[in-house]
Design goal:
mainly alpha, globular, 411 residues
């Protein structure tokens, strides 16, 4: 879809440099429909962030933790495998019937899952229904990234993506806490009441304002969709490696805390990383505008690699030293998620922005799963410090892939 974009030089001259940070957010606030889009985006992210823990607590109340964990894995697998297909449907067909069809299937699968758990259904049935819940989830959160991409200019796109990343980070903090409190203090069914209410609300808001969101493309394009683009394939590889690195840090730090007899710091480690990510993505929301587009992603990935290296060094000194470095190590995580989405939207073929964003989400899940499995094994077999040392190597590889992808695009 076409839209005009201003050049970075032009945007810099519009506002005095000392006020650039506030000016970019003020400009974003003036985008028509900003508050509606922000509410839809935040609500959809909060619902998604509650899903895994809600499912784990629901199933583990009647089954073993192994079965509950397998159900969560099946739900994630179902969501990841079908995300590109649902994104392609959003790009190529009217939004209302696609979202409503997904919503009906999602609600049906959710109700069937709850009934099966309450009636003591077999583990195979529980896992199959969990996969169906993930596979049918309305892709509102992913679609809103495409909406931001279509309604903003180059002045506000990075800021919008940074805000989106901040909202995702906040949702990942608030969502599990809310799901855990509702499930453990009141009822395992209440998180699902909250999730379905938020999901229905976001779909209804999109359907009511369907004329203001992304319109379907008449172009069919290559059957591979965005995967036909070499620069996009490299970007997807960089995204998977980056998320693998982020997940590695999340997995290794609790193991490190246990091995160093400082298990009480586990929550503080992960909380500090999350807070650093949220604050960093908000503060750095306009900073990437000052970097040439081809340099922004490799530079931020390089900074993340340096942060991970500093964390590994600090962990070698003491658990408290590692805690002090955690906020700095997480500072660019949110900004990188935002920039990967911005770059993906820029590289997306015409009419395939939502599918591209869906592929990025699918690679997030794949990278996260690989990072958790590989680095948990490394930390257990070789020690957590060895695992932490290898994380910067992984992130540097992601930086090289992103650099080569954008260099290929320029040629």
């Amino acid at each position: 879809m076409s839209r005009s974009r201003t050049t970075p030089n032009a945007t810099r001259s519009d506002h005095p440099t000392p006020y650039r940070f506030l000016a970019d957010y003020q400009t974003l606030l003036r985008v028509p429909g900003f508050w509606r889009m922000a509410i839809i985006g935040m609500t959809s992210k909060l619902a998604a962030s509650m899903t895994s823990l809600s499912l784990l607590l629901l199933v583990s109340g009647s089954y073993s933790y192994g079965t509950a964990g397998l159900a969560v894995s099946c739900s994630t697998l179902g969501q990841g495998l079908t995300a590109p297909l649902r994104g392609r449907l959003i790009d190529r067909f009217p939004i209302c019937p696609v979202l409503l069809s997904c919503l009906v299937a999602y609600l049906t699968a959710t109700i069937a899952l709850i009934v099966a758990v309450r009636n003591g259904g077999g583990a195979t049935l529980i896992c199959s229904l969990a996969a169906a819940v993930g596979a049918s989830a309305p892709p509102v959160a992913v679609m809103m990234r495409s909406v931001w991409h279509s309604v903003t200019t180059s002045t506000t796109l990075n800021t919008a993506m940074a805000l989106d990343a901040s909202m995702m980070g906040a949702a990942l903090i608030v969502g599990p806490v809310l799901a855990g409190w509702l499930s453990l203090s009141l009822s395992p069914l209440l998180p699902y009441a909250a999730i379905t209410t938020m999901t229905v609300t976001t779909v209804a808001l999109v359907v009511v304002n369907s004329s203001a969101v992304v319109t379907p493309s008449a172009e069919v394009g290559h059957w591979l969709g965005p995967l036909a683009s070499s620069p996009l394939r490299r970007l997807l590889a960089a995204d998977a490696l980056f998320v693998m690195g982020v997940t590695a840090v999340d997995v290794v730090l609790p193991i490190y805390a246990r091995q160093e007899h400082a298990a009480e710091l586990t929550g503080f480690y992960l909380g500090s990383l999350a807070v650093g990510s949220v604050v960093g993505s908000f503060v750095l929301g306009t900073a990437t505008n000052r970097l040439p587009r081809r340099l922004a992603l490799p530079v931020l990935l390089g900074l993340f690699a340096l942060g991970c290296a500093a964390l590994a060094v600090a962990a070698g000194l003491s658990p408290m030293a590692a805690l002090m470095v955690c906020p700095a190590a997480g500072l660019v995580i949110g900004s990188l998620f935002a920039l990967l989405r911005t770059t993906g939207g820029d590289l997306a073929p015409a009419g395939q922005v939502t599918e591209t964003m869906s592929w990025l989400s699918a690679l997030d899940m794949a990278g996260g799963a690989a990072g958790a499995a590989v680095f948990a094994h490394l930390a257990d077999a070789k020690g957590s410090l060895t695992a932490l040392v290898l994380v910067p190597v992984l992130v540097v590889t992601a930086a090289v892939a992103s650099w080569r992808g954008q260099a290929r695009q320029r040629r």
